[in-house]
Amino acid sequence: MQPSPAALLQPARALALALGLVALQVAGAQSQGGTAAGPRIAGPGDVTFALLAQAPTQGAYEQQQVRRFLDGSGALSSVQERLVVVGDGTMSPPFQLEFVAAVGVAPDSEAAAKWRSTYRKHASLFHEHGSFRVRDAAAAARNYTLHDFGNGVRAGRTTRRVVVYPRIDDKPIWLLELDVQTGRPLYSGQFDRQIRLLGELEVQSVQPVTEVAAMPPDWNWRPRMTLVPHASPTDGIQSLQSGDQDGNLLVHPRLDQQVGEYALQRTHVAEDPLNGARSLVLTYTDGIDAFFVVQAPGAPSPLQVFPNLIQPQGTRTHTIAYHDDPAQRVYWFGQGDTTFTVAGSGALQRLDAVAKQIYRQAVARN
């Protein structure tokens, strides 16, 4: 029996690895390896952030996998998935992520139907933001270190075990098992500083997709919202103004003092085809971790339903609502006719300062 990934993590000596790195005690048999072309990972020097960024986007493959995440009670829930990826030379190739089953949920139940609907709507959040991903190899190399812990076996394939450790404390620690043939993760586990498992993705089987040309049209996942990319937040703000004043309270966040190692990765405007509501979405990353700033003009403030937020003089206090658990942090506030949402990983304690800074900028623009 293969040891639990959580059981492999133990505290390391402070002088052994920078910033109190945790160590892996690796055990397990190794499988026969190799192809005619040879493996992508022959030794620890082959594991780079560039490889971690590129490998999942290359080739055509299908995976049966299990996603485990913290539920409302703090326990790990398990969902079985089917993932198909067809690499097309980009860093975001076409994919399809499907719900298969959930532990304790009957296949023909209403709960299973809700799961399937959730996956159809939000598959990209699970696939692109719900597990380990290198979004910018150069930035990842500045903000994280790689530590090799030898070979293992996962899904009948030889793997290389690696810990990805952040240089700044308030980031998740990642334990990876990489397929030595392809470089793709067959396991990724997210841990906090107390070595508590926050979530994991385990591949149970993987096979190549050989009949790409025979796949049906529109096989891959597509967002329900209309997404329009923009070169900068300023361009996105201007597109939202559309001749009225809705965009006047939108801000271009200045976050160098709060999260200086995070850079703006993507700017887009999302439009709901059902009601035409539009919002500006900014994605920031340090190369691996990411957080989002969403600004929705014309949306009701999430706090206006609470009468206790009205002062006796009749003016509203500057209040930020938040949800905070080990897995995620979300902050909401309203200013003028715009609702702001800031969301990121539970480990990123500085996200509180990010929300406050954006609120200050919104107030200054009022």
Keyword list:
alpha+beta, single chain, 2 domains, outer membrane lipoprotein receptor (LolB), chain A, 8-stranded antiparallel beta sheet, 17 strands, Phosphorylase Kinase, domain 1, 366 residues
What would you note in describing this structure?
A hairpin with a 5-residue loop joins strand 3 and strand 4 (76-86). The longest helix is centred in the first third of the chain and has 20 residues, at 110-129. This protein folds into 2 domains: 5-214, outer membrane lipoprotein receptor (LolB), chain A (Clam); 226-365, Phosphorylase Kinase, domain 1 (2-Layer Sandwich). With 366 residues, it is of the alpha+beta class. The N and C termini lie far apart (61 Å). The protein is built from 6 helices and 17 strands. The protein is 17% helix and 36% strand. The strands form 3 sheets. The chain has an 8-stranded antiparallel sheet with strand order 5-4-3-10-9-8-7-6.
Report the order of strands and helices.
Answer: HEEHEEEHHEEEEEEHEEEEEEH
Per DSSP, the total helix count is: 6
Based on DSSP secondary structure assignment, what is the total number of beta strands?
17
Largest sheet: 8 strands, antiparallel
CATH fold assignment of the largest domain? outer membrane lipoprotein receptor (LolB), chain A
Name the shape in a single word: globular
The end-to-end distance, rounded to whole angstroms, is: 61 Å
Q: Pairing-aware structural class of the strands and helices? A: alpha+beta
List the domain count as a whole number.
Answer: 2
CATH C-level of the largest domain: Mainly Beta
Strand content: 35-45%
Question: Strand sequence of the main sheet, in spatial order?
Answer: 5-4-3-10-9-8-7-6
Can you tell me the CATH architecture of the largest domain?
A: Clam
Estimated helix fraction: 10-25%
- Oligomeric state of this protein: single chain
Rg (C-alpha, Å) = 22 Å
Mean pLDDT: 85
- Unreliable stretches covering 5 or more consecutive residues: 1-36
